[in-house]
Amino acid sequence: MRETQALIERVRRVSADVLQIDLTVEPALMHLEPGQSLFVRPVDQADWQPYLREQWIPVDVTPGRVVVEGAPTRFYAPGDALSVLSPVGRAIPLRPKLLHLLLIAEDALPTPFMHLARKVIGGGVEVTLVLRGEARRYPLELLPPEIEVLHGEADWRWPEQVEMFTWADQVLVLAPSYAYMEVYGPIYATIAQLRQHNVPDDFVSGLFYYPMACGVGVCGACLVPARQRITACTDGPAIDLKQVRFP
Ligand code: FES
Description:
Layout: E1 2-13, E2 19-24, E3 37-42, E4 54-62, E5 65-70, E6 81-88, E7 100-106, H1 111-122, E8 126-132, E9 148-151, H2 161-167, E10 170-174, H3 180-194, E11 204-207, E12 223-224, E13 230-231, H4 232-235, E14 238-240
Parallel strand pairs: 7-8, 7-10, 8-9, 10-11
Antiparallel strand pairs: 1-2, 1-6, 2-5, 3-4, 3-6, 4-5, 11-14, 12-13
The protein binds FE2/S2 (inorganic) cluster (FES).
FE2/S2 (inorganic) cluster binds at residues 212-215, 217-222, 231, 233.
């Protein structure tokens, strides 16, 4: 992880829930892989010098420019300079011979899937995104048109659920941090049952985003409940649900 500077070029309020910020970045940031994020704080702002950095999630990376997306928590303006530590986390591992990717967002905006979706679609992978609960508020116009979008029913029995788990070569699930165990646990249990408890490595992963302090695996603020020591900031955000210790 190294520190660079970025400049806010443009700020777009896409909806009540979603803000997009275009950043001019140094060349080192062009190598961000899907899953990796930025650890950011403003510089040269006399009125606001936060002690902790914020984790910003890229949705698109092009030469010299990174677009990040999140819930609007504070007013940022074009011209603001940022100190950026990156990359945070590791690239989301992809299974060999990936043809069908299933993404599930429950009560969380599917922002962390967007960089990955763009990349794998370019490689010919079919992507299906299931939106449930608050995730349905995500503006569909932000999604690449190639993504198939389904809306999950209230009891998780969206049409073709079992068929989807069978059809997919890999599954990624996203929930808000307060609901990781209650969302990821049943999905893992269903898949384990369908596969007769022989789930391949990285077949189903949950994305973990905890408030971070150090960002380098030292402080333990983002520990994932698991059989060995796993921190979301260095081993995540995608953690193989086989490794997670569910209550
Ligand atoms: S933020 Fe310190 S270990 Fe992850």
